[in-house]
Amino acid sequence: MASGRSSLALSRRAILGGAALLPLLPRRGFAAARFPEDFTWGVSTSAAQIEGAAEIDGKAPSIWDVFAQQPGRIADGGTPEIACDHYHLLEEDIALMQGLGIGAYRFSIAWPRVVPDGIGRQNEQGWAFYDRLVDRLLAAGIKPMPCLYHWDLPQALQERGGWLSRDSIAWLSEYARAACKRLGDRVDTWFILNEASVHAIFGHGTGEHAPGIAGGNDGVLQALHHQNLAQGAALRALRQERSGLTLGTVLSLQPVVPETESRVDHDAAIRWDAVWNRLALDGLMRGTVPEVLVPTLGKVVQPDDLDLVKTPVDLIGMNYYSRCTVRHEPGRLLDVGWGRPHADRFTAYGWPVEPQGLKEMLLQLKTLYGNPPVLITENGAAYADDPRGGPVQDDERITFLRDHLLALQEALEEGCNVKGYMAWSLLDNFEWQMGYKMRFGLVFVDFDNDRKRIPKASYDWFRRVVGTGIPA
């Protein structure tokens, strides 16, 4: 979710904002079907975006804490220092989840909160927070689904090379073991990484995200390959630590299409698809590298690397927001630029609303990768929400969610193996380089008034969907 444009940078905002929207058929009279009885409903958040307490109870700085302090990095000058103050408002937030009636919650563990230096010494106060979170969730009848890494690498590890170092393989593996030792008696479903391709592209290629490295194509591929390797090592470590776990990872998956029918735009789409979608999917599911990336990746792939990358998972977490429509544009990352928007609906972020792309990507998983079990771990939209006139009547968000759930039903009808859906996000939060300007939450957070929580109309709508199984 990035906003900067340089001669090299290709921002996530721009790539999404340039995606073309296929005409949507009117849904008048369309009767939504009921989702399966065993379908999992939930919400997702991430530690760096909601927890706050950045310097409390032994937490060390993450790369986002450091990045946000650099002038000009965050659109509104905000930082994750307080965020939603979830660290102190834990009980209130779990009550909000309980009010939705959801069955599961995907959150992330702040690595520098529990292992301040990234490796070695652990922080008891940090682990105690996650003990409370897990215990309160279980008491509320909500299944905890932690993600080990949602972009907030300990700054201490960044200073040792971060994801550009192969040492990161051992760092993540050791951290995974520590997390399982502490919480594995109560947590049986784990995700390893969140959106490794996004973190590599915008954190290590264009520099628009933390840690702010404008490393170009080499930086992207090196960081992404090392994340894929570390993921394989962490999966194996968790399986060695405890049997019977359900293990997965979270990918941002979006159909990539060329802006025009020209050969150069077609080739640009192949390159972008290879980095955004295929390097993670092909490595994880097949133990291969997309052909178009072989010449560049040959610099970093060592013998037996792909055997480690191809470590089986039980569940794919899929984050979906829009298609990517791209064109050939020399001088930008991968020589790929964004296409002109052809959509008739956009979010406040400038992203087009393309629910059918969700179905398209699920069908790709079915036909190309053996129809693995999938949990939609993020889907949502930013709109201009304002509670000053009374309740937040966010009808555009309701329409967005409904249309995507209807597309998801179509995918289920065509045999896609989808196990559940999690809305992004429970709360308005620190939205990375955009700061607090973009609101994705089902719950409005008043950042100027003690972080007061105000459920939006979409909260009540989603509660009804969870209760009935019908996205009406």
Describe this structure in words.
GO terms for molecular function: beta-glucosidase activity. Keywords: Carbohydrate metabolism, Cellulose degradation, Glycosidase, Hydrolase, Polysaccharide degradation. It catalyses: Hydrolysis of terminal, non-reducing beta-D-glucosyl residues with release of beta-D-glucose. This is Beta-glucosidase. The active site is at 378 (nucleophile). With 472 residues, the chain is of the alpha/beta class. It has a single domain (12-22, 33-467), classed as Glycosidases (TIM Barrel, Alpha-Beta Barrel), CATH 3.20.20. The chain is 38% helix and 14% strand. The protein has helices spanning 12-17, 47-50, 63-68, 90-100, 111-114, 124-139, 155-158, 168-183, 196-204, 216-241, 263-286, 294-297, 305-309, 356-369, 395-413, 457-468; strands at 40-44, 104-108, 143-149, 189-194, 246-252, 256-258, 315-319, 324-328, 336-338, 374-378, 418-424, 443-446, 452-455. The strands form 3 sheets. It has an 8-stranded parallel beta barrel, surrounded by 6 helices. A 3-stranded mixed β-sheet has the order 6-8-9. Helix 14 (356-369) runs parallel beside helix 15. The radius of gyration is 21 Å and the shape is globular. The chain starts with 11 loop residues before the first helix and ends with a helix.
